[in-house]
Design brief:
Layout lengths: L25 H14 L4 E7 L5 H10 L5 E6 L6 H11 L6 H5 L2 H17 L3 E6 L7 H10 L11 E6 L2 H6 L5 H4 L2 E7 L4 H14 L12 H8 L3 H17 L7 H11 L4 H4 L9 H17 L9 H6 L34 H10 L13 H9 L3 E7 L2 H7 L3 E7 L2 E10 L3 E6 L2 E6 H5 L2 E10 L15 H13 L13 H13 L10 H10 L16
Parallel strand pairs: 1-4, 1-5, 2-3, 3-4
Antiparallel strand pairs: 6-11, 7-8, 7-11, 8-9, 9-10
Helix pairs in contact: 1-2, 3-5, 9-10, 10-11, 10-12, 11-12
Length: about 550
Protein backbone atom coordinates (compact mmCIF):
# COMPACT_ATOMS: atom_id res chain seq x y z
CA UNK A 1 0.00 0.00 0.00
CA UNK A 2 2.78 2.45 0.89
CA UNK A 3 5.24 1.25 -1.79
CA UNK A 4 4.14 3.76 -4.42
CA UNK A 5 4.07 6.57 -1.87
CA UNK A 6 7.72 5.98 -0.93
CA UNK A 7 8.80 5.03 -4.49
CA UNK A 8 9.60 1.45 -3.48
CA UNK A 9 9.68 -1.42 -5.95
CA UNK A 10 8.98 -4.05 -3.27
CA UNK A 11 7.90 -4.21 0.36
CA UNK A 12 11.22 -3.79 2.18
CA UNK A 13 10.15 -5.25 5.52
CA UNK A 14 8.21 -8.35 4.57
CA UNK A 15 8.90 -11.23 6.96
CA UNK A 16 8.97 -13.68 4.02
CA UNK A 17 12.49 -15.15 3.56
CA UNK A 18 13.27 -13.34 0.30
CA UNK A 19 16.95 -14.02 -0.62
CA UNK A 20 17.21 -10.58 -2.22
CA UNK A 21 17.07 -9.02 1.25
CA UNK A 22 19.70 -11.27 2.79
CA UNK A 23 21.70 -9.30 5.38
CA UNK A 24 24.54 -11.14 7.05
CA UNK A 25 25.70 -9.34 10.19
CA UNK A 26 28.98 -10.26 11.86
CA UNK A 27 27.01 -12.51 14.23
CA UNK A 28 25.32 -14.28 11.33
CA UNK A 29 28.68 -14.79 9.63
CA UNK A 30 30.12 -16.28 12.82
CA UNK A 31 27.13 -18.61 13.17
CA UNK A 32 27.55 -19.71 9.56
CA UNK A 33 31.26 -20.32 10.15
CA UNK A 34 30.41 -22.61 13.07
CA UNK A 35 28.07 -24.68 10.90
CA UNK A 36 30.62 -24.94 8.09
CA UNK A 37 33.31 -25.87 10.62
CA UNK A 38 31.17 -28.75 11.78
CA UNK A 39 31.22 -30.37 8.34
CA UNK A 40 34.98 -30.77 8.29
CA UNK A 41 35.48 -31.44 11.98
CA UNK A 42 35.05 -35.20 11.97
CA UNK A 43 31.45 -35.54 13.02
CA UNK A 44 29.38 -35.10 16.15
CA UNK A 45 26.78 -32.47 17.00
CA UNK A 46 26.81 -28.76 16.16
CA UNK A 47 24.39 -26.54 18.08
CA UNK A 48 22.97 -23.21 16.83
CA UNK A 49 20.49 -21.41 19.07
CA UNK A 50 18.86 -17.99 18.99
CA UNK A 51 15.74 -16.08 19.93
CA UNK A 52 12.64 -16.22 17.75
CA UNK A 53 13.25 -14.08 14.68
CA UNK A 54 17.02 -13.74 15.27
CA UNK A 55 17.83 -15.11 11.81
CA UNK A 56 18.56 -18.80 12.47
CA UNK A 57 16.67 -19.84 9.33
CA UNK A 58 18.60 -17.25 7.31
CA UNK A 59 21.88 -18.76 8.49
CA UNK A 60 20.57 -22.26 7.82
CA UNK A 61 19.64 -21.37 4.23
CA UNK A 62 23.10 -19.87 3.64
CA UNK A 63 24.67 -22.99 5.09
CA UNK A 64 22.65 -25.30 2.85
CA UNK A 65 23.71 -23.27 -0.20
CA UNK A 66 27.39 -23.65 0.76
CA UNK A 67 27.43 -27.34 1.62
CA UNK A 68 30.33 -28.94 -0.33
CA UNK A 69 29.56 -31.12 -3.33
CA UNK A 70 30.66 -34.28 -1.48
CA UNK A 71 28.04 -33.81 1.23
CA UNK A 72 24.62 -35.42 1.28
CA UNK A 73 22.19 -33.35 3.34
CA UNK A 74 18.97 -34.26 5.12
CA UNK A 75 16.87 -31.35 6.38
CA UNK A 76 14.04 -31.82 8.88
CA UNK A 77 11.96 -28.73 9.68
CA UNK A 78 9.16 -30.40 11.67
CA UNK A 79 10.78 -32.46 14.43
CA UNK A 80 7.62 -33.25 16.41
CA UNK A 81 8.16 -36.91 15.61
CA UNK A 82 8.63 -40.20 17.40
CA UNK A 83 12.00 -41.90 17.17
CA UNK A 84 10.77 -44.23 14.44
CA UNK A 85 9.15 -41.39 12.48
CA UNK A 86 12.38 -39.40 12.66
CA UNK A 87 14.42 -42.33 11.35
CA UNK A 88 11.91 -42.86 8.55
CA UNK A 89 12.19 -39.16 7.64
CA UNK A 90 15.99 -39.39 7.59
CA UNK A 91 15.73 -42.33 5.19
CA UNK A 92 13.35 -40.37 2.96
CA UNK A 93 15.61 -37.30 2.91
CA UNK A 94 18.74 -39.31 2.08
CA UNK A 95 16.87 -41.56 -0.38
CA UNK A 96 17.70 -44.69 1.59
CA UNK A 97 15.68 -47.67 0.45
CA UNK A 98 14.21 -49.66 3.34
CA UNK A 99 12.82 -53.09 2.59
CA UNK A 100 9.26 -53.72 3.80
CA UNK A 101 10.50 -56.41 6.14
CA UNK A 102 13.03 -54.03 7.67
CA UNK A 103 10.41 -51.29 8.00
CA UNK A 104 8.18 -53.76 9.77
CA UNK A 105 10.97 -54.42 12.25
CA UNK A 106 10.56 -50.89 13.60
CA UNK A 107 13.43 -48.72 14.84
CA UNK A 108 16.07 -51.43 14.37
CA UNK A 109 15.19 -51.89 10.70
CA UNK A 110 15.62 -48.20 9.95
CA UNK A 111 18.83 -47.91 11.99
CA UNK A 112 20.37 -50.87 10.15
CA UNK A 113 19.47 -49.34 6.77
CA UNK A 114 20.97 -45.97 7.77
CA UNK A 115 24.16 -47.65 9.01
CA UNK A 116 24.60 -49.57 5.74
CA UNK A 117 24.07 -46.37 3.79
CA UNK A 118 26.60 -44.40 5.88
CA UNK A 119 29.27 -47.07 5.43
CA UNK A 120 28.68 -47.17 1.67
CA UNK A 121 28.81 -43.35 1.49
CA UNK A 122 32.06 -43.24 3.43
CA UNK A 123 33.60 -45.77 1.02
CA UNK A 124 32.72 -43.36 -1.82
CA UNK A 125 34.31 -40.38 -0.03
CA UNK A 126 30.95 -38.76 0.80
CA UNK A 127 29.88 -37.00 4.01
CA UNK A 128 26.36 -36.99 5.39
CA UNK A 129 24.82 -34.10 7.31
CA UNK A 130 21.50 -34.12 9.16
CA UNK A 131 20.05 -30.64 9.89
CA UNK A 132 17.12 -30.44 12.32
CA UNK A 133 15.39 -27.06 12.62
CA UNK A 134 13.18 -26.14 15.60
CA UNK A 135 15.11 -28.80 17.53
CA UNK A 136 13.75 -27.56 20.85
CA UNK A 137 10.65 -29.60 19.96
CA UNK A 138 12.57 -32.89 20.03
CA UNK A 139 11.76 -35.25 22.87
CA UNK A 140 14.46 -36.76 25.08
CA UNK A 141 13.87 -40.19 23.52
CA UNK A 142 14.41 -38.81 20.02
CA UNK A 143 17.55 -36.94 21.08
CA UNK A 144 18.93 -40.14 22.56
CA UNK A 145 18.21 -41.95 19.30
CA UNK A 146 20.10 -39.23 17.43
CA UNK A 147 23.07 -39.76 19.74
CA UNK A 148 23.04 -43.47 18.96
CA UNK A 149 23.10 -42.67 15.24
CA UNK A 150 26.47 -40.95 15.74
CA UNK A 151 27.99 -44.11 17.25
CA UNK A 152 28.93 -45.35 13.78
CA UNK A 153 32.45 -44.09 13.16
CA UNK A 154 35.84 -44.87 11.70
CA UNK A 155 39.19 -44.35 13.40
CA UNK A 156 39.22 -40.79 12.03
CA UNK A 157 35.66 -39.49 12.04
CA UNK A 158 32.03 -40.13 12.74
CA UNK A 159 29.97 -40.97 9.67
CA UNK A 160 27.03 -38.66 10.43
CA UNK A 161 27.20 -34.98 11.28
CA UNK A 162 24.10 -33.67 13.08
CA UNK A 163 23.27 -29.95 13.29
CA UNK A 164 20.60 -28.90 15.79
CA UNK A 165 19.02 -25.47 15.31
CA UNK A 166 16.55 -24.17 17.85
CA UNK A 167 15.44 -21.62 20.40
CA UNK A 168 17.36 -20.93 23.65
CA UNK A 169 15.50 -23.65 25.56
CA UNK A 170 17.39 -26.21 23.47
CA UNK A 171 20.50 -25.37 25.48
CA UNK A 172 18.55 -25.99 28.69
CA UNK A 173 17.33 -29.33 27.36
CA UNK A 174 20.86 -30.52 26.63
CA UNK A 175 21.91 -29.60 30.17
CA UNK A 176 19.63 -32.31 31.60
CA UNK A 177 21.48 -35.20 33.29
CA UNK A 178 19.87 -37.81 31.03
CA UNK A 179 21.31 -36.05 27.95
CA UNK A 180 24.83 -35.61 29.29
CA UNK A 181 26.31 -38.09 26.81
CA UNK A 182 24.82 -36.15 23.90
CA UNK A 183 26.01 -32.82 25.33
CA UNK A 184 29.57 -34.19 25.46
CA UNK A 185 29.41 -34.83 21.71
CA UNK A 186 28.63 -31.19 20.84
CA UNK A 187 31.81 -30.08 19.05
CA UNK A 188 30.68 -26.51 18.30
CA UNK A 189 27.92 -24.34 19.65
CA UNK A 190 26.87 -20.78 18.89
CA UNK A 191 24.10 -18.58 20.25
CA UNK A 192 22.86 -16.04 17.70
CA UNK A 193 22.24 -12.81 19.58
CA UNK A 194 20.32 -9.72 18.43
CA UNK A 195 21.73 -7.04 16.15
CA UNK A 196 23.60 -4.17 17.72
CA UNK A 197 22.42 -0.59 17.32
CA UNK A 198 24.79 0.14 14.40
CA UNK A 199 23.83 -3.16 12.76
CA UNK A 200 20.16 -2.29 13.14
CA UNK A 201 20.70 0.93 11.20
CA UNK A 202 22.67 -0.92 8.53
CA UNK A 203 19.97 -3.59 8.32
CA UNK A 204 17.22 -1.01 7.75
CA UNK A 205 19.30 0.88 5.17
CA UNK A 206 20.14 -2.36 3.34
CA UNK A 207 16.52 -3.46 3.00
CA UNK A 208 15.41 0.00 1.86
CA UNK A 209 18.22 0.10 -0.70
CA UNK A 210 17.23 -3.29 -2.11
CA UNK A 211 13.62 -2.10 -2.34
CA UNK A 212 14.75 0.90 -4.41
CA UNK A 213 14.15 3.69 -1.90
CA UNK A 214 15.18 7.15 -3.12
CA UNK A 215 14.77 9.13 0.09
CA UNK A 216 15.19 8.05 3.71
CA UNK A 217 11.84 7.04 5.20
CA UNK A 218 13.75 6.20 8.41
CA UNK A 219 16.09 9.02 9.51
CA UNK A 220 19.32 7.75 11.13
CA UNK A 221 18.32 9.51 14.35
CA UNK A 222 15.53 6.92 14.79
CA UNK A 223 17.91 3.94 14.78
CA UNK A 224 18.44 3.88 18.59
CA UNK A 225 14.68 3.90 19.16
CA UNK A 226 14.05 1.18 16.56
CA UNK A 227 16.77 -0.91 18.15
CA UNK A 228 15.35 -0.41 21.62
CA UNK A 229 11.75 -1.15 20.65
CA UNK A 230 12.62 -4.20 18.51
CA UNK A 231 15.39 -5.44 20.83
CA UNK A 232 17.63 -5.84 17.79
CA UNK A 233 15.71 -8.90 16.55
CA UNK A 234 15.42 -8.82 12.72
CA UNK A 235 11.86 -10.12 12.57
CA UNK A 236 10.70 -7.58 15.15
CA UNK A 237 12.51 -4.85 13.21
CA UNK A 238 10.63 -5.89 10.07
CA UNK A 239 7.25 -5.86 11.82
CA UNK A 240 7.92 -2.48 13.43
CA UNK A 241 9.30 -0.77 10.32
CA UNK A 242 6.55 -2.13 8.09
CA UNK A 243 3.86 -0.76 10.42
CA UNK A 244 5.74 2.55 10.81
CA UNK A 245 5.89 3.06 7.03
CA UNK A 246 2.17 2.43 6.84
CA UNK A 247 1.67 4.96 9.62
CA UNK A 248 3.74 7.58 7.79
CA UNK A 249 1.67 6.92 4.66
CA UNK A 250 -1.58 7.38 6.60
CA UNK A 251 -0.35 10.68 8.05
CA UNK A 252 1.02 11.87 4.68
CA UNK A 253 4.48 12.22 6.21
CA UNK A 254 7.59 11.88 3.99
CA UNK A 255 9.45 10.26 6.88
CA UNK A 256 8.73 8.14 9.92
CA UNK A 257 8.79 10.28 13.04
CA UNK A 258 9.38 9.26 16.65
CA UNK A 259 5.68 9.61 17.39
CA UNK A 260 4.74 7.42 14.40
CA UNK A 261 7.34 4.83 15.40
CA UNK A 262 6.06 4.65 18.98
CA UNK A 263 2.47 4.25 17.82
CA UNK A 264 3.58 1.50 15.44
CA UNK A 265 5.28 -0.26 18.36
CA UNK A 266 2.05 0.00 20.36
CA UNK A 267 0.27 -1.82 17.53
CA UNK A 268 2.72 -4.63 16.85
CA UNK A 269 4.21 -5.09 20.33
CA UNK A 270 1.04 -4.63 22.35
CA UNK A 271 2.33 -6.84 25.18
CA UNK A 272 5.53 -4.82 25.70
CA UNK A 273 5.41 -2.31 28.60
CA UNK A 274 7.10 0.35 26.43
CA UNK A 275 4.53 -0.13 23.72
CA UNK A 276 1.57 0.14 26.06
CA UNK A 277 2.65 3.66 27.04
CA UNK A 278 2.26 4.89 23.46
CA UNK A 279 -1.22 6.22 22.56
CA UNK A 280 -3.07 4.83 19.57
CA UNK A 281 -3.97 7.90 17.56
CA UNK A 282 -4.25 6.42 14.07
CA UNK A 283 -5.87 3.23 12.92
CA UNK A 284 -3.56 0.66 11.35
CA UNK A 285 -5.99 -2.23 11.25
CA UNK A 286 -7.80 -3.64 8.25
CA UNK A 287 -10.70 -1.21 8.43
CA UNK A 288 -8.42 1.80 8.41
CA UNK A 289 -6.50 0.42 5.46
CA UNK A 290 -9.50 1.00 3.19
CA UNK A 291 -9.47 4.69 4.03
CA UNK A 292 -5.73 4.75 3.24
CA UNK A 293 -6.43 3.67 -0.31
CA UNK A 294 -8.78 6.59 -0.82
CA UNK A 295 -6.16 9.00 0.52
CA UNK A 296 -3.36 7.57 -1.62
CA UNK A 297 -3.71 9.66 -4.77
CA UNK A 298 -4.01 12.97 -2.92
CA UNK A 299 -1.17 12.08 -0.55
CA UNK A 300 1.15 11.30 -3.45
CA UNK A 301 0.55 14.72 -4.98
CA UNK A 302 1.22 16.44 -1.66
CA UNK A 303 4.46 14.52 -0.97
CA UNK A 304 7.50 16.87 -0.78
CA UNK A 305 10.37 16.31 -3.20
CA UNK A 306 12.60 13.44 -2.05
CA UNK A 307 15.68 15.20 -3.34
CA UNK A 308 15.68 17.30 -0.19
CA UNK A 309 15.92 14.16 1.96
CA UNK A 310 19.23 12.32 2.59
CA UNK A 311 19.71 9.31 0.33
CA UNK A 312 19.63 5.67 1.38
CA UNK A 313 23.29 5.42 0.42
CA UNK A 314 24.03 8.15 2.97
CA UNK A 315 22.27 6.12 5.67
CA UNK A 316 24.26 3.01 4.75
CA UNK A 317 27.47 5.02 4.98
CA UNK A 318 26.80 6.35 8.48
CA UNK A 319 29.27 4.84 10.96
CA UNK A 320 29.70 5.72 14.64
CA UNK A 321 33.25 7.12 14.79
CA UNK A 322 35.44 7.12 17.92
CA UNK A 323 36.98 10.33 19.20
CA UNK A 324 39.64 11.86 16.92
CA UNK A 325 39.07 9.25 14.23
CA UNK A 326 38.18 10.98 10.96
CA UNK A 327 36.58 9.02 8.11
CA UNK A 328 37.05 10.50 4.63
CA UNK A 329 34.05 10.15 2.36
CA UNK A 330 34.42 8.30 -0.95
CA UNK A 331 33.73 10.15 -4.16
CA UNK A 332 30.11 9.92 -5.22
CA UNK A 333 28.94 8.49 -8.54
CA UNK A 334 26.59 10.81 -10.46
CA UNK A 335 23.13 9.22 -10.54
CA UNK A 336 22.18 8.31 -14.09
CA UNK A 337 19.27 6.44 -15.58
CA UNK A 338 20.16 2.74 -15.70
CA UNK A 339 20.50 1.17 -19.13
CA UNK A 340 19.04 -2.16 -18.10
CA UNK A 341 15.72 -2.27 -16.27
CA UNK A 342 14.39 -5.17 -14.15
CA UNK A 343 13.96 -8.27 -16.27
CA UNK A 344 16.66 -7.32 -18.81
CA UNK A 345 19.61 -9.72 -19.34
CA UNK A 346 22.75 -8.88 -17.40
CA UNK A 347 26.25 -8.81 -18.92
CA UNK A 348 27.86 -11.91 -17.42
CA UNK A 349 30.77 -14.25 -18.11
CA UNK A 350 30.24 -17.98 -17.80
CA UNK A 351 33.89 -18.47 -16.79
CA UNK A 352 34.87 -17.30 -13.31
CA UNK A 353 38.54 -17.33 -14.33
CA UNK A 354 37.88 -14.77 -17.08
CA UNK A 355 35.97 -12.58 -14.61
CA UNK A 356 38.82 -12.69 -12.08
CA UNK A 357 41.31 -11.83 -14.81
CA UNK A 358 39.19 -8.80 -15.77
CA UNK A 359 39.03 -7.78 -12.10
CA UNK A 360 42.83 -8.04 -11.76
CA UNK A 361 43.26 -5.74 -14.79
CA UNK A 362 41.59 -2.93 -12.79
CA UNK A 363 44.64 -2.90 -10.51
CA UNK A 364 46.90 -1.67 -13.30
CA UNK A 365 48.82 -2.93 -16.35
CA UNK A 366 51.24 -4.97 -14.24
CA UNK A 367 48.34 -7.06 -12.92
CA UNK A 368 46.47 -7.43 -16.20
CA UNK A 369 48.16 -10.71 -17.08
CA UNK A 370 47.26 -12.56 -13.87
CA UNK A 371 46.03 -15.84 -15.25
CA UNK A 372 45.61 -19.45 -14.32
CA UNK A 373 43.71 -22.60 -15.02
CA UNK A 374 41.24 -21.85 -12.25
CA UNK A 375 40.36 -19.13 -9.71
CA UNK A 376 42.70 -20.69 -7.14
CA UNK A 377 45.64 -20.32 -9.53
CA UNK A 378 44.75 -16.67 -10.17
CA UNK A 379 44.65 -15.95 -6.44
CA UNK A 380 48.02 -17.66 -5.99
CA UNK A 381 49.47 -15.59 -8.85
CA UNK A 382 48.07 -12.43 -7.26
CA UNK A 383 50.13 -13.06 -4.13
CA UNK A 384 53.31 -12.42 -6.13
CA UNK A 385 51.92 -8.97 -6.96
CA UNK A 386 51.20 -8.23 -3.26
CA UNK A 387 47.49 -8.73 -3.88
CA UNK A 388 45.27 -11.09 -1.96
CA UNK A 389 41.93 -12.61 -2.89
CA UNK A 390 39.03 -12.21 -0.51
CA UNK A 391 35.95 -14.39 -1.06
CA UNK A 392 32.88 -13.33 0.86
CA UNK A 393 29.13 -13.44 1.05
CA UNK A 394 26.79 -10.56 1.84
CA UNK A 395 24.37 -8.05 0.44
CA UNK A 396 24.72 -4.58 -1.00
CA UNK A 397 25.62 -3.20 2.42
CA UNK A 398 28.64 -5.49 2.61
CA UNK A 399 29.82 -4.42 -0.84
CA UNK A 400 29.39 -0.74 0.03
CA UNK A 401 31.41 -1.23 3.21
CA UNK A 402 34.31 -2.96 1.42
CA UNK A 403 34.16 -0.29 -1.34
CA UNK A 404 36.12 -2.18 -3.97
CA UNK A 405 35.32 -3.77 -7.34
CA UNK A 406 34.44 -7.45 -7.11
CA UNK A 407 33.51 -10.48 -9.15
CA UNK A 408 29.88 -11.25 -8.27
CA UNK A 409 27.99 -14.48 -8.88
CA UNK A 410 24.64 -14.01 -10.62
CA UNK A 411 21.90 -16.62 -10.98
CA UNK A 412 19.35 -16.75 -13.79
CA UNK A 413 17.30 -19.85 -13.15
CA UNK A 414 19.65 -22.86 -13.49
CA UNK A 415 22.33 -20.74 -15.19
CA UNK A 416 25.14 -19.22 -13.15
CA UNK A 417 27.28 -16.40 -14.50
CA UNK A 418 29.96 -14.04 -13.25
CA UNK A 419 30.23 -10.27 -13.64
CA UNK A 420 32.74 -7.64 -12.58
CA UNK A 421 31.02 -5.08 -10.38
CA UNK A 422 32.84 -1.76 -10.84
CA UNK A 423 30.32 0.86 -9.66
CA UNK A 424 27.53 1.20 -7.12
CA UNK A 425 25.19 4.05 -6.22
CA UNK A 426 21.76 4.27 -4.63
CA UNK A 427 19.87 3.44 -7.84
CA UNK A 428 22.11 1.24 -9.95
CA UNK A 429 25.19 -0.90 -10.23
CA UNK A 430 27.77 -0.79 -13.02
CA UNK A 431 28.97 -4.09 -14.49
CA UNK A 432 32.02 -4.44 -16.74
CA UNK A 433 32.41 -6.94 -19.56
CA UNK A 434 35.71 -6.30 -21.30
CA UNK A 435 35.78 -2.64 -22.36
CA UNK A 436 32.01 -2.41 -22.12
CA UNK A 437 30.37 -0.96 -19.01
CA UNK A 438 26.68 -1.05 -18.39
CA UNK A 439 24.51 0.45 -15.67
CA UNK A 440 21.94 -1.97 -14.28
CA UNK A 441 18.86 -1.11 -12.26
CA UNK A 442 19.57 -2.18 -8.68
CA UNK A 443 16.36 -4.25 -8.52
CA UNK A 444 17.44 -6.25 -11.58
CA UNK A 445 20.82 -6.86 -9.96
CA UNK A 446 19.70 -7.96 -6.49
CA UNK A 447 17.08 -10.29 -7.99
CA UNK A 448 19.93 -12.40 -9.39
CA UNK A 449 22.75 -11.69 -6.96
CA UNK A 450 23.22 -14.68 -4.67
CA UNK A 451 25.54 -12.79 -2.32
CA UNK A 452 28.80 -14.49 -3.35
CA UNK A 453 31.67 -12.22 -4.36
CA UNK A 454 35.46 -12.23 -4.74
CA UNK A 455 37.68 -9.18 -4.61
CA UNK A 456 41.36 -8.23 -4.29
CA UNK A 457 43.11 -6.09 -1.72
CA UNK A 458 46.68 -4.88 -1.36
CA UNK A 459 48.72 -6.55 1.40
CA UNK A 460 51.29 -4.78 3.57
CA UNK A 461 54.78 -6.22 3.86
CA UNK A 462 55.07 -9.52 5.78
CA UNK A 463 51.28 -9.84 6.02
CA UNK A 464 49.87 -12.43 8.42
CA UNK A 465 46.26 -13.59 8.44
CA UNK A 466 45.83 -12.64 12.10
CA UNK A 467 47.82 -10.14 14.18
CA UNK A 468 47.19 -10.07 17.94
CA UNK A 469 48.53 -8.19 20.96
CA UNK A 470 52.21 -8.85 21.57
CA UNK A 471 53.01 -9.67 17.95
CA UNK A 472 55.69 -7.64 16.19
CA UNK A 473 56.95 -7.23 12.63
CA UNK A 474 56.45 -5.09 9.51
CA UNK A 475 52.71 -5.76 9.44
CA UNK A 476 52.37 -4.65 13.08
CA UNK A 477 54.34 -1.49 12.23
CA UNK A 478 51.98 -0.86 9.30
CA UNK A 479 48.88 -1.17 11.50
CA UNK A 480 50.31 0.97 14.30
CA UNK A 481 51.40 3.75 11.93
CA UNK A 482 47.99 3.99 10.26
CA UNK A 483 46.01 3.90 13.49
CA UNK A 484 48.30 6.53 14.99
CA UNK A 485 47.82 8.66 11.89
CA UNK A 486 44.03 8.42 12.17
CA UNK A 487 44.35 9.54 15.81
CA UNK A 488 46.91 12.28 14.97
CA UNK A 489 49.28 10.63 17.45
CA UNK A 490 52.94 9.60 17.34
CA UNK A 491 53.40 6.08 16.01
CA UNK A 492 55.25 3.49 18.14
CA UNK A 493 58.86 2.70 17.27
CA UNK A 494 59.48 0.21 14.47
CA UNK A 495 59.51 -3.47 15.44
CA UNK A 496 57.67 -2.66 18.68
CA UNK A 497 55.09 -5.24 19.83
CA UNK A 498 51.41 -4.53 19.33
CA UNK A 499 50.70 -2.86 22.69
CA UNK A 500 47.53 -2.28 24.69
CA UNK A 501 47.09 1.29 23.41
CA UNK A 502 47.27 0.24 19.76
CA UNK A 503 44.98 -2.70 20.40
CA UNK A 504 42.43 -0.38 22.00
CA UNK A 505 42.68 1.92 18.96
CA UNK A 506 42.17 -1.16 16.80
CA UNK A 507 39.04 -2.18 18.72
CA UNK A 508 37.62 1.34 18.45
CA UNK A 509 38.39 1.41 14.73
CA UNK A 510 36.73 -1.98 14.15
CA UNK A 511 33.62 -0.96 16.09
CA UNK A 512 33.35 2.29 14.11
CA UNK A 513 33.57 0.40 10.81
CA UNK A 514 31.03 -2.33 11.68
CA UNK A 515 33.76 -4.95 11.99
CA UNK A 516 34.12 -7.52 14.73
CA UNK A 517 35.64 -5.43 17.53
CA UNK A 518 38.01 -8.08 18.91
CA UNK A 519 41.28 -6.16 18.55
CA UNK A 520 42.63 -8.82 16.17
CA UNK A 521 43.58 -7.54 12.71
CA UNK A 522 42.24 -9.67 9.87
CA UNK A 523 41.71 -9.11 6.13
CA UNK A 524 38.59 -6.94 6.46
CA UNK A 525 40.36 -4.70 8.99
CA UNK A 526 43.32 -4.31 6.61
CA UNK A 527 40.98 -3.49 3.73
CA UNK A 528 39.26 -0.73 5.67
CA UNK A 529 42.58 0.69 6.89
CA UNK A 530 43.75 0.75 3.26
CA UNK A 531 40.69 2.79 2.32
CA UNK A 532 41.06 5.33 5.09
CA UNK A 533 44.84 5.59 4.67
CA UNK A 534 44.50 6.38 0.94
CA UNK A 535 46.36 3.26 -0.16
CA UNK A 536 46.12 3.19 -3.98
CA UNK A 537 43.38 0.66 -4.73
CA UNK A 538 40.40 0.66 -7.12
CA UNK A 539 37.18 1.86 -5.51
CA UNK A 540 33.62 0.69 -6.00
CA UNK A 541 31.98 3.94 -4.91
CA UNK A 542 34.36 6.13 -6.95
CA UNK A 543 33.36 6.89 -10.55
CA UNK A 544 33.90 3.90 -12.79
CA UNK A 545 35.81 1.90 -10.21
CA UNK A 546 39.12 3.11 -11.61
CA UNK A 547 40.73 3.94 -8.33
CA UNK A 548 41.14 6.82 -5.94
Amino acid sequence: MYNHYFQLTHSPFSIAPDPRYLFMSERHREALAHLLYGIGSGGGFVLLTGEIGAGKTTVCRCFIEQVPANCRLAYIFNPRLTAQELLQTVCDELHIEVAPAAAGAGVKGYVDAINRYLLASHAQGLNNVLVIDEAQNLSSDVLEQLRLLTNLETSERKLLQIILIGQPELRTMLARPELEQLAQRVIARYHLGPLGEAETGAYIAHRLAVAGAVGVPFPPALTPLVHRLAHGVPRRINLLCDRALLGAYVENSPQVTRAILRRAAAEVFADDPAARRAPRRWPLLAGGALACVALGAAAWQMLPQHAAVPTVAAVAAVKPAPVALATPKPAAIPVAAPVAAPGAPLPTLENETAALGALAALWGPSFANLAGADPKAICEAALHANLRCHAGRGGLYELRLLDRPAVVTLHDGPRTGYAVLVGLDERSVTLAQGDRRERIDIAAFVARFGGEFTTFWRMPAAFRDVVAQGDRGPDVDWIAQRLAGLHSATAPALDAPLDARTKEWLRAFQAAQDLKADGVAGPRTYMRLNQLSNVAEPRLLAAGGTGS
